């Protein structure tokens, strides 16, 4: 065990003073006199302490026993040029024996109904579940699951998140059950972790298909703690036909992701249909501004450049992961989702409803102390400006008996920059789809915006094909998740 530094020793009395409970009734009386008025029923909560969290708001049931060293210790080691690795990396020989799926299974109940104080973190001002916080918890869950599979002696990082789509709407605030296990690991350095969120049932009560809220998969990569290079992890073995089906689905997904990268707009130009669409939109723009034409740009059509919403934030130590100097991937995911939600709301002037999140990849880590830049843009709306009837396009929102429903696809670009230099690195690209009860359209103008538009259109259509093969229900107006 590392010996605390002098700086840490100086902080210990302060930390003990801040976290210790009053030891006598006299100390409680003194505290009441200093902070009066305080009702007697609230004194216990005023002075009670909770377990420390290593990240911003992760549920306490998703923290493991291997807590990180205090930031002041990690900072001092970093300043002295020491490597900050896990202690077990040098003390244990790794076991690469194949593992079973059930060996990595982990389950946690989030008691939203039992503990009203959790609503401060998990429920927003309108009484809806904050999906960004759920996503952050799922990343923490996948970290616990993958360490059950890999064992000690490795550093695991989140490499990507697969498509997230709601399976059934949540109609009431209830206890939720998080569960996950490794479903694909072929003996390389990566593993796929499938996570589920469902309505928690009473002890002995069987679960029902409609209890499932969402399913998503995380891809985790194992690194050698000393060299930071990918390292092998145990291969997964299947015992039942169901497990074999999950494994084969993971293998097919891995191949599909490789094929998709080869057909992206960075590698392949738009096809004939997409090129024709771009040309039609360009002609429509000319018509909007031609004084000799009667058509004018409708008030519900907005230029893509006007939909941008950006943030910049310093990454503080409280957001770090268990590897000390890097930001927790779940926190990063939460920030992108909430910015996308705000972007869709600002664009439509209405409350968005979450539909899906497309697969995303974390391309580079975000260090503590760096500045994280996020830019959200409405990249596509469905129907498109030139794909719906002109008469419908000019109808005001209040002219119909039921408000129209528009799908809004928001793209969030993430970059990070160290304080000491001006070079920014791309950390990821995130795509979220919402629906809004408004008739609103986005209009690209530049070539870059057209490429964003076509890329988002492809993603939306791919998601629609996937939904046709999945038993997803839709009950507008009762879903308490956003």
UniProtKB/TrEMBL annotation:
Residues 15-33 have a biased composition (Low complexity). PANTHER family: ACYL-COA THIOESTERASE, ACYL-COENZYME A THIOESTERASE 9, MITOCHONDRIAL. Residues 108-226, 305-440 form the HotDog ACOT-type domain. It comes from the Eukaryota. Keywords: Hydrolase, Repeat, Transit peptide. Gene3D superfamilies: Hotdog Thioesterase. The keyword Cell wall biogenesis/degradation does not apply. This is HotDog ACOT-type domain-containing protein. Belongs to the acyl coenzyme A hydrolase family. Residues 1-38 are annotated as: Disordered.
């Amino acid at each position: 065990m590392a010996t605390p530094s002098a700086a840490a020793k100086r902080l210990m009395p302060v930390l003990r003073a801040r976290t210790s409970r009053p030891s006598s009734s006299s100390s409680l009386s003194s505290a009441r006199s200093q902070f009066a008025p305080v009702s007697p029923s609230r004194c216990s909560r005023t002075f009670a302490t909770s377990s420390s969290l290593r990240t911003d708001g992760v549920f306490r049931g998703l923290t493991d026993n291997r807590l990180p060293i205090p930031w002041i210790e990690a900072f001092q080691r970093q300043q002295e040029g020491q490597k900050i690795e896990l202690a077990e990396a040098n003390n244990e020989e790794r076991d690469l024996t194949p593992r079973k799926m059930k060996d990595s299974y982990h389950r946690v109940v989030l008691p939203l109904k039992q503990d009203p104080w959790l609503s401060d973190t998990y429920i927003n001002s309108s009484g809806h579940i904050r999906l960004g916080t759920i996503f952050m918890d799922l990343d923490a869950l996948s970290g616990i699951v993958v360490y059950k599979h890999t064992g000690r002696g490795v550093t695991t990082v989140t490499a990507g998140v697969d498509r997230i789509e709601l399976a059934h709407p949540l109609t009431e605030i209830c206890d939720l059950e998080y569960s996950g296990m490794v479903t694909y690991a072929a003996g390389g350095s990566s593993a796929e972790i499938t996570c589920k969120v469902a309505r928690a049932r009473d002890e002995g009560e069987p679960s029902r298909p409609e209890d499932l809220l969402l399913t998503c998969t995380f891809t985790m990569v194992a690194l050698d703690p000393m060299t930071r290079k990918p390292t092998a992890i145990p291969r997964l073995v299947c015992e039942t036909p169901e497990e074999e089906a999950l494994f084969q689905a993971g293998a097919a997904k891995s191949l599909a992701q490789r094929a998709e990268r080869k057909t992206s707009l960075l590698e392949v130009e738009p096809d004939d249909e997409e090129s024709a669409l771009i040309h039609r939109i360009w002609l429509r723009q000319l018509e909007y501004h031609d004084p000799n034409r009667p058509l004018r740009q409708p008030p519900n059509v907005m230029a893509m450049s006007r939909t941008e919403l950006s943030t910049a934030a310093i990454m503080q130590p409280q957001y770090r992961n268990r590897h000390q100097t890097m930001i927790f991937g779940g926190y990063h995911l939460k920030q992108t989702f909430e910015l996308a939600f705000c972007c869709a709301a600002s664009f439509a002037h209405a409350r968005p409803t979450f539909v899906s999140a497309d697969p995303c990849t974390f391309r580079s880590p975000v260090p503590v102390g760096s500045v994280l830049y996020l830019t959200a843009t409405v990249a596509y709306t469905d129907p498109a400006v030139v794909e719906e009837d002109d008469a419908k396009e000019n109808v005001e929102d209040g002219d119909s008996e039921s408000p129209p429903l528009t799908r809004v696809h928001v793209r969030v670009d993430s970059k990070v920059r160290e304080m000491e230099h001006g070079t920014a690195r791309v950390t990821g690209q995130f795509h979220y789809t919402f629906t809004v009860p408004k008739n609103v359209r986005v209009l690209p103008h530049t070539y870059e915006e057209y490429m964003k538009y076509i890329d988002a259109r492809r993603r939306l259509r791919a998601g629609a094909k996937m939904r046709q093969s999945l038993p997803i229900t839709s009950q507008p107006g009762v879903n308490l998740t956003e």
